Amino acid sequence: MLHTFENVRVGLMVGIGGGTPSSKNDLRLGDVVTVQDREFHIRGHFDQPPVAIRTAVNALKGELMLQPGLLEQEVEGRLYPDIEGTFGRPGVHLDNLYRSKVVHVNGQPHPNLHPDSFVQRQSRSNPRRPAIHYGLVASANQLMKDALIRDKLRIYLTKEFVIPRNHIGKDFSDFETHIANNALAKLKVSQGACFDTYDGQNEPECLENTRVDILHRINTWAGDFDDQRMFWLSGLAGTEKSTISRTIAKRFDSLKLLGASCFFKRGESDRSNGSAFFGTIARQLVTHRSELKPYLLQAIKDQDDIFHKNLREQFDKLILVPLENAYKGSGSVLSSIIVVDALDECDNKGDVKLLIPMLHELAEISFCRIKVFITSRPDTAVHFARRPNLGSYREFILHEVSKDIIDHDIGVFLDYELSNIREDWNAEHEATLDADWPGAERLQTLIQKATPPFIFAATACRFIQDSLLGSPETQLMRIIEHQSANGGTTINDKLKETYLPVLEGLLIKRRKSEQAVILARFSEIVGTIILLERPLSTQALGAMLAVDPDVITSFLAPLRFIINTRRGMHQPLKLFHASFRDFLLSARAEVFRIDRVACHRRLSLASLKLLHSEEPLWENCCDLTPGTELGEIPTQLINDRLPSQVQYACLHWVGHLTQAQYALRADDHVHQFLQVHFLHWIEALAILGSATKSIGFANVLLSLKMTDDPGSLRDLIQDIKSFLTSQILPFEAFPRQAYFSALLFAPSGSVVRKTFKKWIPKFITMQPAVGSNWTSQLHSFRIAEKTSTYL
């Protein structure tokens, strides 16, 4: 219309004002709804409305506040008494708002409806005067007849579900999709744990004509849901359990049988414990089985902190209850398989002990046909699974497979990989390898050296392929000619034959003084990599250790077939196989052995030094307002202000301190850090969504040994625990409240309050009356008209 009538400068289309009523927005026929502030939409942008509109709105506000006399209206009413009856506001008795459950047959309401069928409305002091509502105007391009949709829309426009304002004009189904995605985004999931993630796209699968027997057994079990519901595949390190898991997960997915997969991985915090296990499974289940989505969304809505609850409660609310609501008595049957790989790499053995019975329970539910496939090392199966009260399951032990089958499979793998190496080398070099290289005899030698661990074969192929160290022929001979010092045949002996030749290459033709420097650097860099709770990039590792990233890259170059460094300086450094970590922590690593305690101590102190420096932590690091909620902070902003090494240090310095068997003392690194940066630290934890972990950190610090009469340090940590347990609710949701309500409502005698009182905002001139000491009441908060108290 603005384009058609050029003299019309501002256009506003209006509709029925009762679109989204609520207890706070009681719109009635005749009311006026207008837009203000930054909510006037101009071609889909969020610019301020024109000056004319803002001036007019302010004039309307002012006129309403002045309450002008009604003489003119009274005179008109006397002169034209019939006009109001024809054109005036309808009577209140005609302006009824029906509840959404009321059904209008043939468009007409039932004549004898119960009063409960109507929305109760308070009377207005002047029924002739329209109310003016300022704020957001939600518009659509179609008539809204469905009251249920109207009520849903009203809910979506509340703060509970924040949506981009430019979505308002879209189809209503977009709202439901957007809200569902927002809610599902709250699920705590293990990044990279699914079989088909980006990080796992280059991980190997079983080659054709290998693992024939075990794959046949698994596929037969999977196709018969009357068979035992759980399959446990156990095997020693290097028997390629994860390769089998990826292979069968991909096949199950192609057959629409895969419900979810979770690949545990030691050294990656999200994947080395069970805290996000059920969130990871639930998120995939609703992706594969959409009928579960409304019940999972309801579980999240009913208890939005479910991800902080114990594993049993997470299992019930996120898995069991949605499955029961969706399928029990519905007539439809869910047939699905869940793949859980490397359960032994869940470092928290308490989590493993809890997870296994729940997985048994999941496999045994009667209203669904769910099967569970698990892999682990043998000790996990023996210790946790083989208990009479856990029911029966099918088991296959990989390391008991006959030697002939293992030799055949390794031979197929080596022949495939070495053929590719030969072709790549010949395509790029004049000095080519023979067409039958490496030859049957040397291939057989490699097969014998590789048995039993498959990781020998994979590591050897990466070593042979690395042209920076020499030609494939040279590298092959180095492996074949290396003799194990003791000629052993145990799994540890084979690991030594796999890794030690590579490591010894670092020391070849070096003087003793140079070897000492290399070994110290090895302990610092490689020792840190294998003991990190989650992988860091070369850039982040350099910042953590105060080592030039280029130095790290150069040092790791000869080890790039053991540590994956080929993804660039900004991608996480990862081990190709966890057995390298096991080897370096054992005596068989000889001079390359990593001192676990010393390395954890170095990591904890490096983290504290990083956080205690000038740049990483400061008040309001993300430029938030006091009312900014956690969910409103852009992820990119968090990553910019709190880079990965700072995030790591915030989350893990306490854990490394514990494993270093550190003894606290007054005025040490821990004491100095807490005295200066405690509030900055918990603000950062809140921004990272980990505020609740701070209480556990305080408990851990209190459990550490303290020396040299650390009275002031003990008092500070004890007060920190009281401060966190009583004040965590505000700043968990609103990170900046660590400096506002958390400090303001702490007792006057609190060590934390006295230490950080300078951070209380100056504009708060009247502070609340508080007691002098902490009481047994940990927290009191108000919900609606009820007051609840934590004791």
UniProtKB/TrEMBL annotation:
Keyword entries, A-Z: Repeat
All residue ranges annotated as the Nephrocystin 3-like N-terminal domain in the record: 218-377
Keyword Nucleotide-binding found: no
InterPro entries noted in UniProt: NPHP3-like_N, Nucleoside_phosphorylase_sf, P-loop_NTPase
Statement: the UniProt record of this protein carries the keyword Repeat: yes
Single GO molecular function: catalytic activity
Domain of life assignment: Eukaryota
One BP term from GO: nucleoside metabolic process
Protein name: Nephrocystin 3-like N-terminal domain-containing protein
